[in-house]
Amino acid sequence: MLKEIYTRLYSETEQGKQSWSEVSARTADLLRQCGGDGVDVCKLEEALTAAGEAGMEQGFILGARFIIELITEAII
Q: What is the pTM of this model?
């Protein structure tokens, strides 16, 4: 239920779309640093881990903003 609320209230907003663009861009940059066809498994693992961390960071930021907006709406 919380996922549905989040999807309807936040993900379709301009801010939500911008956040996904930021995560996508950061992930693409990390994968480009790996170097194409001759990718070392260790380098790929490091890049994917860094991409996961970037997603987690963005998720935390989004979550914090979302809860602040919910609290603000509840107070008003």
A: 0.56
